Amino acid sequence: MAALALQPSVAAHVGSPDVFLDGLAGPYRLFVTVRPPYAIPGVADVGILTTADDVRDVHIVPLPLSGPGAQFAPVADRAARSPGDPRSFTGHLWMMTAGAWQVRVTVDGDRGTGTLSIPVPTFPQSTLAMNHGLRVVLFVLMFLLAAGFVGIASAMAREARLEPGVAADRRARRRGWIVGAVAACVVGGIVFLGNWWWTVEASNYARYVYKPLQAMPTVTRDARLRLELHDPGWIASRHLNDFVPDHGHLMHLFLIPPALDRLWHLHPDEITTGTFEQRLPNLPQGQYELFADLVHATGVSETVTGRLETASIHGVPLQGDDSAWTEPAVRLKPDTTGEEAARS
Known about the structure:
Immunoglobulin-like
């Protein structure tokens, strides 16, 4: 964990699971992109770009971020070198479960071996829908299989006892119809139970799809921002009482107006489980988008979003690591082209 915390320039985008890292694997500088799968289990795409020309091989392997699994790595996969750019490598890795993972990159070159670990949270983002063409093909195959089973069962009951060359009499045909009807009922029951099983599995996986924490922001009379977190229900291992400090704070909160001309970076304190408070600085009246970064003890990081609409706030000066940014006013240089043209 400490080694991963020291890695520089780990970044991601709000609403995107992709992870980007600019770091050193021993003497080699790497730019790594990891695109986790949208469905779990699934395949993650890994891209590595090195600034060195003396890299011979790059190997990648997925590991849990913590626990016993982080100590025992499976056999690493060799990343493929791009034929168009010898400094670029790509690979694909299976991510089997949701949670906190890491992708370990090992580089071999003329200057020795270097290793770099990239923390990668894997969240099931959606279910993979079956396309219409495949649905039609599978339905036709199911119909043919069911019809063939019913036909075979009916023919066995109708003709199995007949001597060669003897036509089926009325009794044999009746027996075939009865067995065929029973077989059709059996097939119908199997299809019904199969559809029920499929629906249950799909519903279970739908509950497994990542659901972000919900935030309810309010402003108290004494200009305090109160942020209450709620878990809409996801996996049982996610809790609201296991947040750990990241860069010295449990929460990093960003307030951004729609005009994107200002930004406040605040660090609310947790007053009760799942509830954070912060004395606000001076804020103009308006609407603000909230982005709160949190890290669980499992290593999984989450970005909680919300929206706050407030009147003008006369708050307190920024303290500690809190900071603010305002877009500098752009001073336009007067256009004197017309005047110069007139003089000439």
